[in-house]
Write a structure and sequence with these properties.
By secondary structure, this protein is mainly α. Helices cover 34% and strands 0% of the residues. The chain has a domain of 38 residues.
Length: 64
């Protein structure tokens, strides 16, 4: 802990990291605790592939 630290905080919009957004949404389906994904779903694998390629999707914003 006696080392010099440099910390950078950067906002990443959900459209830029859909895998994290997908996993956060999926986590709400389970009780609190650690969960290991041994066999990712096809949907998650597709999202990871798109994230890796830098493919982005537009977010729909609904106005009332």
């Amino acid at each position: 802990m006696a080392q010099e630290w440099e910390i950078k905080i950067k906002k990443i919009f959900r459209e830029q990291n859909r895998a994290a957004d997908f996993l956060a949404t999926e986590a709400l389906k389970y009780p609190l605790g650690m969960r290991t994904i041994l066999n990712p779903t096809t949907k998650l694998l597709d999202i990871l592939s798109e994230d890796k390629q830098g493919i982005r999707r537009m977010r729909k914003i609904w106005k009332k």
